[in-house]
User: Fold these one by one.
Assistant:
Number 1:
Amino acid sequence: MKKTPTQTHHNNNNILPSPLLLLLLLLLFLHHHNTLTSAADGKWNLLLSNIGISAMHMQLLPTDRIIMFDRTDYGLSNISLPNGKCRIDLDEVAKPDCTAHSVEYDVVSNSIRPLMVLTNVWCSSGALMPDGTLVQTGGFNNGDHVVRTYKPCTDRVCDWEEITAGLKQRRWYATNHILPDGRQIIIGGRRQFNYEFFPKRTSLEDKSYNLRFLVETNDPKIENNLYPFVFLNGDGNLFIFANNRAILFNYNNGAVVRNYPVIPGGDPRTYPSTGSAVLLPFRKNFGIEVLVCGGAPKGAFVGAHNGKFMPALNTCGRIRINDPNPQWVMETMPMGRVMGDMVLLPNGHVLIINGAGSGTAGWEFGRDPIFSPVIYRPDNRIGSRFEVQNPNMTPRMYHSTAVLLRDGRVLVGGSNPHRYYNFTNVLFPTDLTLEAFSPSYLDPKFAYLRPRIVSPASQSKIGYGQQLVVRFSTPPGRLDGTSVMVTMVAPSFTTHSFAMNQRLLFLSGGNVIPVGKSTYQVRVMTPDSGNLAPAGYYLLFVVYKDIPSEGIWVQIK
Ligand SMILES: *[C@@H]1O[C@H](CO)[C@@H](O)[C@H](O)[C@H]1NC(C)=O
Ligand SMILES: CC(=O)N[C@H]1CO[C@H](CO)[C@@H](O)[C@@H]1O
């Protein structure tokens, strides 16, 4: 449904409404009373036409900077390393290479600065530690056992630090997740049917642990279970989806707690069949759900090798992971999509963006770019959840990314389906641009609803299971307190169409009471435990009738 009742009404205001039309309008209105934003379809803006690298990996930091990096072995990038620095790596095409393969983007000044990674970060993984430090793991060649840390700063001098033998196994196409105790788990990677932790549990723990599920889901010719979709469940176990099915996994003792059914159709959804997945926004005492969307059907990878680009999957599977007998419920997207990114928006909607209509992930294997994002409203009735948004003009194919910003925009970058930087004479040239997608909730026509958080101050620390008083102001007018929500979103590490550690919590709340002229307060409860929200930084939003405030940073511990 693309129009709100108001818009339908305006469009028809020279026609005398018949009783039937009135009834229809009323039904539409009742059904859509809380989806005001569906009248507009989002806007695109080009932020920078050349950031020097192709944003293959992205992480938002609590300083409102985004760390991005691609690969060190692409050849020369379009941005020089700082202070005349160079690297020499004999495995690379450019020797020496005095260009940067990582940059920091500053949202406020809309500018970048080059950073220096010493070793190859290609197809790696990462997560923010509870103190806001980005820990990135693995990569290729000289980088495959390396752990790199980046401590956020605002003085524009901080840079990557490297721990040379930080990993027990080589990690290339692995997935990381932050754990309730503040460590990260690093799962899988090419030909790695195991997991390990960073930092290690004790100084004596110098090992990785086998994970049979990764053997079982591995098709040796296609390796269809890379970059598994990993989510921390509310019971402390990990939901791990690879290829076409999932397990619930106790990483403390290596036990598979439960096996989920194969996703209907049996098509693979993880790399290189690259669909995407999110833990749907959740509320205390409600079932936790996972949504897996898109991907490439069986045979697509071999097909692409032979120049046949099969249409992407147009289905999503949704599952309540803690039900006694969990079953996938299938839904159909407006179009098929492989290599899409799924981004949780502050109001609890899911944005599906980037990617292609046919082919698979891998060099030169994608076709038919999908320019239009789609919004998915998890709480709408099945059949009325998807809404197509306005398109951009830039193909965002293999190696594209998208992350949520504090102001509610979604930062989009990357796309390089080639082995090197190739800017000319190729299909889908290497892309060095950065764009922002502004969902319709940022449209000026909703300014009359937009809340603004007055307190707590950004960067406040909060505890678990505590009452949190949030004060906010709204534009003058009567506020309907029942339509106010407070949400908390974890900043994710995004690469290869999967946002590691992405989660959104609705905080359960009490009444909204006025405390001044157009100022209100709402008391909400912070999450009960690190299983629901691992310690660290989150963006906190006040949402009124689906229109989010600008976020503030809170640190939970
Ligand atoms: C892509 O870039 C590489 C490295 O610069 C170059 O050798 C190759 O010829 C380019 N491919 C095309 C199709 O231009
Ligand atoms: C491909 C590309 O974007 N090349 C750019 C590299 O940077 C210079 C300026 O520093 C531009 O002129 C090129 O267009």
Note: The helical segments are 5-11, 19-32, 212-216, 300-305.
Number 2:
Amino acid sequence: MRINFNVPPSTGKELEYIKQCIDAEKICGDGSFTKKCNKWFEERMKATKCLLTTSCTHATEMAAMLCDIKEGDEVIMPSYTFVSTADAFVLRGAKAVFVDIRPDTMNIDEKKIEEAITEKTRAIVPVHYAGVACEMDTILDIAKRHGLFVIEDAAQGVLASYKGQALGTIGDFGCYSFHETKNYSMGEGGALLIKDAKYIERAEIIREKGTDRSKYYRGQVDKYTWQDAGSSYLPSDMNAAYLYAQLEIADEINNRRLAIWDRYYSELKELEAAGRIELPVIPEGCVHNAHMFYIKTADISERTALKAFMEERGILTVFHYIPLHSAPAGKKYGRFSGEDVYTTRESERLLRLPLYYKLTDEDQSSVIDALKEFYGNR
Ligand SMILES: *Cc1c(COP(=O)(O)O)cnc(C)c1O
């Protein structure tokens, strides 16, 4: 038996849609599937503008450019996140200022943000870990009082919400990921969500190598020229075709993931009640998207033993992240504000269980049984 940690989503329609691109002889960026995806997100998320990108990393780079992040600026973020959150700003010469996380959600501790602000601070980057929202009201209030941008790393937050608002649409910019490990995928890909329409024109230019080609395609100018510094952040329409097949059944995918999540939660509740493990916390007002299911073990040695125990049974589990402030580049490009009370400690206890659209009930039973066996024998 072998149970993978992740299997990328697919619906059966992908090849047909990719073939449509090939038959239409339109495979580069901003073809009909890209437009359909952008429109789907704008309508579903009530976003002013959505631009499909080549990754969430690239969407975040675009946001950093749109905020005019420069050498010497500081950007506040958690240390417990994927490298891209920091990379996008560090590439523009900024310093990453890491703030501790809350142990309940693993999200940035909104109460520790204000003390990290200096005269160099330009932006706050909340990361909605596991598709569970950060405390956005507090974060928006701090940003407003200090004149800072808010860029949501909503890589894991597609179809999740905070007080009724879709994650990615709450701050100035929101960044989604459609990497194969995410809820909806196009292999590699992402999207930038823009709240204020005044940024749309420049975003389109940055995404199209610094040209106004988007305007040209719409017939708004009769030739396109180099307008600004930019890069190539638009994905092939074939990748968008793959993604669109999943968007058509997004609720079905979301419901299946939620059902798997709920079953893990209810079946593992007794282990939590017995004080053996901790389960994820979903605060009031947050609707999550079952991006992941994790448990917390007593400590790192128990986690190592559990991971090996599961692996012996053919079940792959995963942990992450090595906190950025303890990584070589994190030491070079960042600093930790205040004390690391929870970031390292909680990251060492966390173990992610298999959770994907196509996970079968039988396989999930095997995962649950193995966990119960491990704790039953200790
Ligand atoms: C996956 C992920 C990213 C990066 O997404 P890509 O599309 O691979 O660039 C960034 N931040 C977080 C929190 C992620 O989980």
Note: The longest helix spans residues 250-273.
